[in-house]
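Key result, reporting period 2: structure in, sequence out.
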């Protein structure tokens, strides 16, 4: 199986711990780079992405170390299957490539990966409607930017179609929000806060992009991928006639490749018979996939299991206990939580699981730094 050398590009933007967020966001915007490797003493120690910038709001004058995520990377010695697996499970937009000493070799973007598979004919015969995401999370034109930001952060997505009278009138991305949030460098803190409040209260129609580039359900995946690459977009609404029926993104295209390699997201969810009914299973599966994607950006996941138990009943309602377990490269983590709403219960349990993994990684990094300091 081929190596990944022909997929590697130079990372035009590289950050250090002490760089200012405002400066890095400006460079990300200028170079159209979604993910930035963070370097310390020639070693890649983390990444900064638009997702990080969207989820956690800090001052534009803050340092990168306060916002970066743990390192998600591939080795220059990995084969293409390992790269696809990383993009598939982490839903990554770009991944740094490192050598055996964790020094930066370059970066692989989702666009470069899609271009490679497009030229290889891997998307032949596949139709957009077979791989699109449906139903679609949307916002109305009059909804606030704050709501759009919340929906993106909580659902691990970066684009939202904007609806008016049941039709798509525009689209808003994480980048649209982030670029505006972090463009207020040099201002006083009170002025920054006032500007943020103003932005968050705006209706999304004020900053949306239009006209919208769309696809049809009957379009070939080849055509959709070609459009996304030529227009430099990460995803597109899918229409049947004038009505929105799905969203198709680069990750959906990579899913086709993952299935050819027989990759599966390592999720096991043991639901009660009642929770398997209606759309409840789809809601729970959606939450688990999103949080698995977030965990994969922290460390390699070997197994991810969630079980449900009915604890008690009160006035016809059931209290659900959720146990979440992740077997990872850095340890085995288990959390439990309960709620009358099963969806809330599972979200709380996996959020705590993510926090536990982050805490362990911070602890390991602190230990590593101490050992390195003692050696020097």
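The corresponding designed sequence is given below.
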């Amino acid at each position: 199986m081929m190596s990944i050398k022909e997929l590697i590009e130079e990372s035009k933007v590289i950050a250090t711990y002490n760089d200012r967020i405002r400066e890095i966001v400006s460079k990300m915007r200028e170079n159209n780079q979604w993910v930035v490797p963070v370097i310390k003493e020639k070693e890649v120690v983390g990444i900064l992405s638009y997702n990080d910038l969207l989820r956690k709001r800090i001052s534009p004058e803050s340092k990168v170390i306060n916002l970066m995520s743990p390192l998600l990377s591939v080795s220059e010695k990995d084969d293409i299957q390992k790269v696809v697996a990383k993009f598939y499970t982490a839903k990554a937009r770009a991944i740094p490539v490192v050598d055996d000493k964790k020094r930066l070799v370059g970066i692989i973007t989702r666009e470069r990966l899609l271009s490679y598979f497009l030229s290889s004919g891997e998307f032949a015969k596949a139709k957009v409607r077979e791989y699109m995401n449906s139903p679609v999370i949307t916002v109305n034109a009059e909804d606030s930017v704050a709501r759009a930001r919340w929906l993106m952060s909580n659902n691990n997505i970066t684009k939202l179609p904007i609806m008016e009278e049941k039709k798509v009138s525009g689209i808003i991305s994480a980048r649209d929000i982030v670029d505006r949030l972090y463009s207020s460098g040099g201002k006083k803190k009170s002025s920054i806060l006032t500007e943020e409040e103003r932005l968050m209260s705006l209706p999304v129609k004020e900053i949306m992009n239009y006209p919208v580039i769309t696809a049809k359900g009957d379009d070939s995946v080849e055509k959709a991928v070609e459009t996304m690459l030529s227009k430099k977009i990460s995803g597109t609404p899918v229409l049947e006639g004038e009505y929105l029926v799905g969203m198709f993104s680069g990750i959906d295209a990579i899913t086709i490749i993952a299935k050819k390699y027989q990759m599966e997201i390592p999720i096991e969810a043991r639901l009660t018979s009642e929770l398997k009914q209606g759309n409840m299973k789809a809601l729970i599966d959606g939450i688990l996939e999103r949080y698995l994607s977030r965990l994969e950006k922290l460390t390699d996941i070997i197994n991810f299991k969630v079980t449900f138990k009915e604890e008690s009943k009160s006035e016809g309602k059931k209290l659900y206990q959720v146990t979440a377990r992740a077997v990872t490269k850095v340890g085995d983590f288990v959390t439990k939580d309960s709620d009358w709403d099963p969806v809330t219960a599972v979200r709380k349990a996996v959020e705590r699981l993510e926090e536990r993994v982050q805490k362990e990684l911070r602890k390991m990094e602190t230990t590593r730094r101490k050992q390195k300091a003692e050696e020097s």
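The mean pLDDT is 86. The chain has twelve helices and 17 strands. This case is discussed further under Risks and Mitigation.
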